[in-house]
Specification:
The protein is an alpha/beta fold. It contains nine helices and eight strands. An eight-stranded parallel sheet has the order 7-6-5-4-3-2-1-8. Helix 1 packs across helix 2. The longest helix is centred in the N-terminal third of the chain and has 27 residues. The structure holds pyridoxal-5'-phosphate. The site of pyridoxal-5'-phosphate (PLP) has 14 residues, from strand 8 and helix 9.
Length: 243
């Protein structure tokens, strides 16, 4: 019998990868004094073909996916088995694409400016919905990255809290790439402090319960510092091939 062994082994890898990741997520959650269920695993599906994504959704207990690009998600979504699956946008969103994506996602994690927040608020109001968002913080202060910078952040919060068609659920970050574990942990710890501080402010339209940080290479440390949503792509699906 001739089987497509190449594809089969890809699926076995995905299933193994998810098992291993789930068990380290659980270990880190327990180590940080929480239950394994308190930390959600998102499968980041950018550049991944729909057959692989569907395998993870159908067979591996994945119930949360993240996509970076509006166009890519819209072109893939009809092929995906999305019943009961939460979809989050995690990449930079241009204000002129807000309307296109809003009906199809459950959360926008990458709100990186007051201007974008405002565009989402207005478009949501028109649709008669309240949109769940996270605010993206540029914790390393890098010029190359989007996200609120720390200094301007607090003022922006008050403006955003006036936007009644948003429900601000928490914070998201992508820390700088760094070899220094101590520095990386400092970024995560700072995020955790911000998260707690803002939660305490009890701002209108803010309902903080998500701290989204940690990717393939650093989700364990992120969880130790309070992350409760990790976004994992290449450790599940293998290295990304950009076309
Ligand atoms: C691509 C991406 C991820 C996943 O990255 P991996 O290192 O492949 O796990 C997580 N978050 C965001 C915002 C991304 O763009």
């Amino acid at each position: 019998m001739i089987t497509n062994s190449c594809n089969d082994s890809v699926y076995i890898d995905i299933s193994e990868n998810i098992k291993v990741i789930k068990s380290s997520v659980a270990e880190a959650a327990i180590k940080s004094g929480r239950n394994p269920d308190d930390v959600r695993l998102m499968a980041v599906t950018k550049t991944v073909s729909f057959d692989k994504i569907n395998f993870a959704l159908d067979n591996c207990g994945i119930d949360l996916i993240g996509e970076n690009k509006v166009q890519e998600f819209l072109s893939k979504k009809d092929e995906l088995h999305l019943d009961g699956v939460e979809k989050h946008l995690i990449g930079h969103l241009q204000t002129n694409k807000v309307k296109k994506i809003l009906p199809y996602v459950d959360m926008i994690q990458s709100v990186d400016s007051v201007r974008l927040a405002d565009a989402i608020d207005k478009a949501s109001e028109k649709l008669g919905v309240v949109t769940n968002v996270l605010l993206e913080v540029n914790i390393g202060g890098e010029d190359s990255k989007t996200g609120f910078d720390k200094a301007a952040f607090i003022n922006s919060l008050h403006e955003i809290s006036q936007m009644s068609s948003l429900s601000v659920k928490g914070l998201m970050t992508i820390p700088p790439i760094c070899d220094d574990d101590l520095l990386l942990e400092k970024y995560f710890a700072d995020m955790h402090d911000y998260y707690n501080e803002i939660k305490e402010m009890k701002l209108q339209n803010f309902d903080f319960n998500i701290l989204s940080m940690g990717m393939s290479g650093d989700f364990y440390q992120a969880i130790l510092h309070g992350s409760n949503l990790v976004r994992v792509g290449s450790a599940i699906f293998g290295a990304r091939i950009y076309k």
